[in-house]
Write a structure and sequence with these properties.
alpha/beta, Rossmann fold, two-stranded antiparallel sheet, 12 strands, globular
Amino acid sequence: MIAILDYDAGNIKSVEKALEYLGEKAEITRDRDIIMSADKVILPGVGNFGDAMNKLHEYKLCDVIYDVVDSGKPFLGICLGLQLLYKESEESPGTSGLGVLDGKIIRIPDGEGIKVPHIGWNSLKINEKARLFKDVPDNSYVYFVHSYYLKAANEEEVAASTHYSVDIHASVERGNVFACQFHPEKSSEVGLKILKNFIEL
């Protein structure tokens, strides 16, 4: 069973539906015992960094996330869920993120022909060693919705990148922690393959 963390963020049900489509039991929950007994855990979400951190604290999910990460069970952050794994974001100055991974969350710079938020399909440059992208062809297209992007501190953790005004670290992996800025649950067959790879870890 995969636990999907419930902290009132947007876009949680679509992750549940994608997992169930793949034949995987999923449960949207904030119950510590259910989360800790799950095989894997997903932190999805669309929304504001500061508001999301407030909700994680309110529902006492921060310590649960740290315990899941420390336990070694596979953990996946999606979109806002990726950003929350870092210490801070330009979206909410003064708000501390989870700090599980090292890097910066920065606003996508304006540029000619660039619309922010970035909404749409972009191709990925995939690190061939990335476990989340096993058997996913390089330059596959995935679906993004975001105004802020990750610049990871450690290049070796970057599983996939894309370009939209700037080079964007679109996915990272470190040990049992995985994260995607894009939405695999909205990325057609490619996204389903990425979720299937996570299920099979």
